[in-house]
Amino acid sequence: QIKPGSSPVKSILNMGASGTIQPPLPGGSQALTDIEPSALSLKQKISLGGEHVLDWLGSQHSSSGNNLHMVGDNIFGQNKENAFKVFNFGAGDKLATDFNPNYPLPEPYYNKFWNDWTAGKFQFDPQTMGSFVNTAEAIPDQEYKEQYKAYAASLYKDDPASQDKFLNSIVARKKSLRKDFDKFIAELYTKKTKQE
User: Fold this and answer.
1) pTM tops 0.85, yes or no
2) Residue 158, number of CB atoms within 10 A of its CB
């Protein structure tokens, strides 16, 4: 598990359609809908950073404040059914604070989090996300592919070439996770320095 304590997501087939299912969160959870990133505790910010790593890994861009919930020091993502929706074999999405494929629905909470951090509204060390990246990188490529084989088959029925292309693309995303976030954070540091 890449993010300890996270709400597990399983892919399912329901009447021939692929989807995801998660257990309900424990009572007392609160959505981040009206919570400013600066109001989060340090542990919650680190947990949110881990959730962002997970969502980029799974090309999941519908994590608005409605879909992110606080339970104590943890932030849990819910409603992951849009994973890989705009992936297009790795060419359909981007790791950027202006990316919102759900428009006019609310943007990902991460966009506000990182824009506020860049504007100096709160302190956060992005290096705290490294442990989540390390855990993802440690998953053997073949094991990672195996976890997604049934999902790939449901996305590209009777198209083994596209199934293989998808599986290779998600492994490529896993392998580029550190480089992707290094580039993303470096660009934000450049903006942050100009604003200070």
Assistant:
1) yes
2) 7
* pLDDT per residue rounded down to tens, the chain (196 residues): 555 555 555 665 565 665 555 555 556 689 999 999 999 999 999 999 999 999 999 999 999 999 999 998 999 998 888 899 999 999 999 999 999 998 888 999 999 999 999 999 999 999 999 999 999 999 999 999 999 999 999 999 999 999 999 999 999 999 999 999 999 999 999 998 887 6
In 3-state terms, the chain is what percent helix, strand and coil (to 5)?
A: 50, 10, 40
- Is residue 62 within 8 Å of residue 102, measured between CB atoms? yes
What DSSP state is assigned to residue 40?
Answer: S
Residues 6+ apart with CB under 8 A from 162: 155, 156
Closest CA to 117 of 98, 95, 99, 97: 97
